[in-house]
Amino acid sequence: MLPALVVLIVVLSVTTDGLLTSSNIVNVLSQSTVVAIAAIGATFVILTGGIDLSIGSVIGASGVAGAWLITSVHSVAAGIVFALLVGAGIGVAVGLLVAKLPVVPFAVTLAGLYVVSGGSTLLSHGRTIAPVPAGFINFSIDGPGGVPYAVWMTLGLYVIAQIALTRTAWGRRVLLLGAKEEVARINGVSIGRVKTSVYAVAGLFSGLAGVVLTSELAGAGASMGSPLLLNVVGGVVLGGTSLFGGRGSLLRTAIGVLFLGFLSNGMSLLGLASYDQQMVTGALILLAASADGLVRWVRPRTATA
Amino acid sequence: MTSQAPAIAVRNVSKSFSGVVAVQDVSFTVAGGEVVALAGENGAGKSTVKNIIGGILRPDAGRVEFGGTVPAAGTRGAKHSGVATVHQETSLFPDLTVAENILIERLRTGRSPVVRPRRLRRIVAPLLQRVGARFGPDTAVRDLAAGQRQLVEIAKALAADPRAVVFDEPTASLNLDERELVMQIVEQLRDDGVAVLYISHYLEEIARLGGRVVVMRDGHVVGDRPTGELDRAAIELLMVGHELAQGYPALPQPRPDVMLSVRNLDDNARVHGISFDIAQGEIFGLAGLMGSGRTEVARAVFGLGGNAGQIEVDGKSLRRGDVRAAIAAGMAFVTEDRAHEGLFLDRPIRESLSNVVLGSVSVSRWGGWLRRGAERRLTRELAAKVRLVARGGLESGGRSLSGGNQQKIVIGKWLAGRPRLIILDEPTRGIDVGAKAEIHRLLIDLAQAGSAILLISSEMEEVLGLSHRVGVMHDGRLAGVLDRSQATQEAVIRLATGGGR
């Protein structure tokens, strides 16, 4: 996928003005932040061969929960912690259901999507919760070197998550469970515990994504995260993490998310109307994904590692 | 095309995978009406040759000719030339019927889009009769035992009325009767003028089928002679490159203390009221016909099914249905299904070896930071312990290994500590004589060190040669337990077929 991203950036930088100016790059990174954070959790889930469709609604629910506490007790810190707890709590619940019920993750998390979305709309009475303090909004606007704090944090989280995946026993178990669940079970991997943990992690990162989105929008509404689900899963899968599990990384996810980010930004710079943008996005996703497949097909077949 | 041209001619074929040479300048021929046996250890290059003949792989150099002509590339080229392959790992669709599987490539009649079941049955019935199948064309493949599936594979190959057939380990999952059947089918094909390439580890089969034997070692053909000129020892010498110790090693004396105690094991399905003990240092063989419940007993003991009954390990009662508790109690389980349950084919070999003991190479018992140096050292030790031959190193994928070396991983992953009880289900199925002898040696060493061993094998010789005592299963029950002195082939078969003692 990296070659596709490079080609995209080269083509866009020739055809548009100002794609590679520092202000525009910061722009792309900021616009990708929320999706990028949620995609960290989604990567771990997908590595086990699972899927989490509730990510968008958990972003909304935790954002609403955090904004509610921030506006009612005037403590940003308490609001953030609460949002993270709500996200992680929902994640643990979803994970336990996935681990214990003989139901595929697609169905469990689809149910989760509806319940969480309905519940958070009900509790927020369908209203947008605002205003939040200016300092909190600044988190996604200002930062060292003109790069928002939220972007720096996301970069750091990717480094930490990649290390967790490749350098800890937990990460190894996630990968091996996804590679072949039957082997992992016989080897004594606690299948239920690992599965629960990845959905909990997905919930936690969705909660954090909800906090950052609330900061970006200067308020929170229950439905604000719903449109992001496809971009989150799309970024992970475009990056080359296998939907069947056992193969992938955070680095790949970062590339996939950046591809979508630069694509959307470039088309705006080109002045494409939104329906045109959708069609071009679709075509380029197909092209990028198949280019990856073509490379693998052309190369001689080798033992995969 | 000339009539003298051999049905299959492999000419100077070479093939490498990512720089590792799999076969090098291999040449041999198979004429119509001739059986040529292809022998060699795992990893010698037999499967690569088979796949090149079948059009699944393209050779880097050299070519394959059928009846003097070079076929079109790909699997269709081989099929159009009348060359059929009977694969070892069954390539059947479990949810389709026997008839549908056999005719999978020509389900339709002419241009009609409709599949006519009656037509399928009419074509398939004589084929099933020819392979001696005792099941109907409408049986779902899912409901067939492994041996029966192999017969379907053979019928599928014969359906195309081939001029040449490649058999890849066709008897690896079969019992004695079924093996005899396959031998007869091969002989019939030969007498009908079909060219047969027969890949097998069973030297008895090779000797019986006659014709010629082509022996491969390390990707080269090291012998191509009439079977009559080579005895068993000579073939083994060619395969391995050095002399093998004959027969089975002497068994160490078991200790008096009981290591495993099983009482009234039951899974309400295939296994009923099983009770037995295994002492420290004892090898307990479990024999029985296919489907008699041997595998189910092994799985139930390890916690993979069947919760009724009591199990004690070294005097301590074991929580049932819990694999992690079984491992914590010192059990190890070597599955009969290594591709599906044994190792991670698409991950590095190192990860398959270290998974069981990941806690011991990370900073805390529950996980956390992996100490990669410790992991590498441990996996190198384990690989050495089982004499793993991984030409691509421990970072290459499990799929790159031969069956015998994959099996060494499935065993080796348990050997970081000394298991108190090691359960082995068909540990030497489909692997070559060299690897087999090494695995036998390893079992003896484990018993010597005090481990209890539960050994299941369809190979009577192996069970009798390695076991202190042999339990014989019949129809889900333990029909009897024979001491080493009583355990003869006849006695085991009598119990296994329900004949009593």
UniProtKB/TrEMBL annotation, chain A:
Record's bilayer topology term: Multi-pass membrane protein
Main location: membrane
Compartment(s) where it occurs, according to its Swiss-Prot or TrEMBL record: Cell membrane
Pfam families reported in the protein's UniProt record: BPD_transp_2
GO terms under cellular component: plasma membrane
Oxidoreductase recorded as keyword: no
Keyword Transmembrane helix: yes
TM helices/strands, residue ranges: 28-46, 76-99, 146-165, 198-222, 228-246, 253-273, 279-298
InterPro entries the record matches: ABC_transp_permease
Keywords, alphabetical: Cell membrane, Membrane, Transmembrane, Transmembrane helix
GO function terms (MF aspect): transmembrane transporter activity
PANTHER family the UniProt entry points to: ABC TRANSPORTER PERMEASE PROTEIN YPHD-RELATED-RELATED (PTHR32196), RIBOSE IMPORT PERMEASE PROTEIN RBSC (PTHR32196:SF72)
Protein name per UniProt: Monosaccharide ABC transporter membrane protein, CUT2 family
Organism field: Actinacidiphila yanglinensis
TrEMBL record, chain B:
Top-level taxon of origin: Bacteria
One annotated GO molecular function: ATP hydrolysis activity
Keywords per UniProt: ATP-binding, Cell membrane, Membrane, Nucleotide-binding, Repeat, Sugar transport, Translocase, Transport
Residue ranges occupied by any ABC transporter domain in the UniProt entry: 8-243, 253-500
TM annotation in the entry: none
SMART domains: AAA (SM00382)
Pfam family, one: ABC_tran
PANTHER family (alphabetical): CARBOHYDRATE TRANSPORT ATP-BINDING PROTEIN MG119-RELATED (PTHR43790), D-ALLOSE IMPORT ATP-BINDING PROTEIN ALSA-RELATED (PTHR43790:SF3)
Protein name, as recorded: Ribose transport system ATP-binding protein
Protein source organism: Actinacidiphila yanglinensis
